[in-house]
Amino acid sequence: MPEQCFLRWRRKYGNIFTIWFGEQPQVCVAEFNKIIETFQKDGEAYSGRYKFEEFDKLVRGGTYGIIMTEGELWRGQRRFALQIFRDFGLGKNLMQDKILSELELLFERIEEEIKLGKDVDFGENIDISVGSIINNFLFGYRFDNERLGEFRQLKKLMDIILDTGFHPSMFIIRLWPSLRHLPYVNYYFEYLKGVDNQLFDFHKKQIKEHLNSINSPPTDFVEAFLLEKQQKDLIGVPHDFTIEQLVGVANDLWFAGQETTSTTLNWGIAFLINNPNVQNKVHAELDSIIGDFDRIITTADRSSLPYLNATINEIQRMANLVPLNVAHKLTKDVKIDGYYIPKDTIIIPQISAVLADGEIFENPEEFSPERFLDKMGN
């Protein structure tokens, strides 16, 4: 387990230590309070991104989107995306209603499979629901029966990209792009490039269809982005609202939303199945609050469900979805625990080591929501 390796290094070398990625040194911050002091309280200094620009140019034509961009481009695009999220109901009943509507369809699919005596594939059912929510927000439609084939193809492409992207040959090419011509390495490079282009072609197709008819006010994210682009083009001011950037943002939102949400939910089901005592406590709390009312739980119930909230926290802790974390780059010189670390140093907040730290979480390998509750059960 990567987090155990980082924990061993922390115990041996201290809260801050350096690892080497090929010829590239990377500083790891592996202690909770240090991560808060650095990445949270002085976030701007740690907001740079460790990018493989030549690799990205070879595979995708450049670095676009939100996740791997930085500086003014990142700030502007992130600000715009958050504003559109809010406009479309993030944190409000509007967005919640869309999610709950998809949840009802998820329950219907599962109940139908049970009636037919089929084995229930929670993984695929959850994937479809999460994908529909994201796609509806981005492109304005969900994956109903007629479009399930389209979703399965997209999911297949994303799975291949994740698997191939972490193949050892890809790390070699990211560090030394010229080695992509080597026979063995070249196979994986061309394979990843081809699959990546197929996924990007899906986004480009959706954007092209939107260009033929843009609604105002916008009904999905792509329309909102294209309207912003039109307005800035009309004024004649320089901007980053390009089609290439929109393709990158769409891809980021798809990947970031689909994989993390689906995987977290699937881990949650696995943990509850393997911990029936926790499942029973969650069920009892829901019964006590919701009772026999025929309704779905909403965010309005959150404050009344402390054990459920604690269980969700424990699911996220145990799932530990990104054990290696995204590498950042310093935008200025900093000092941590007396160590001088110069600008442009690659630095990683090693939160996975924190989540598995027995000094913070007693018996960290055990699934125990109670660790997030006080003596009063809150």
Question: What's the gist of this structure?
Answer:
This is Cytochrome P450 monooxygenase. Helices cover 59% and strands 7% of the residues. With 378 residues, the chain is an alpha+beta fold.
Description:
There is one protein chain. The chain has 378 residues and is of the alpha+beta class. The protein has a domain at 52-247: Cytochrome P450 (Cytochrome p450, Orthogonal Bundle). Helix content is 59%, strand content 7%. The chain has a five-stranded mixed sheet. Strands 5-6 form a two-stranded antiparallel ribbon. Strand 5 and strand 6 form a beta hairpin. Helix 6 (122-139) runs antiparallel to helix 11 (243-274) and helix 8 crosses helix 9. The longest helix is centred in the last third of the chain and has 32 residues, at 243-274. The protein is globular and about 60 Å long.
Explain the layout of strands and helices.
Layout: H1 2-13, E1 16-21, E2 24-29, H2 32-40, E3 48-49, H3 53-60, H4 71-87, H5 93-115, H6 122-139, H7 148-165, H8 168-175, H9 183-211, H10 221-235, H11 243-274, H12 276-290, H13 306-319, E4 328-329, E5 334-336, E6 339-341, E7 346-349, H14 351-355
Parallel strand pairs: 2-7
Antiparallel strand pairs: 1-2, 3-4, 4-7, 5-6
InterPro entries: Cyt_P450, Cyt_P450_E_grp-I, Cyt_P450_sf, Cytochrome_P450_fam2
Family: Belongs to the cytochrome P450 family.
Cofactor: heme
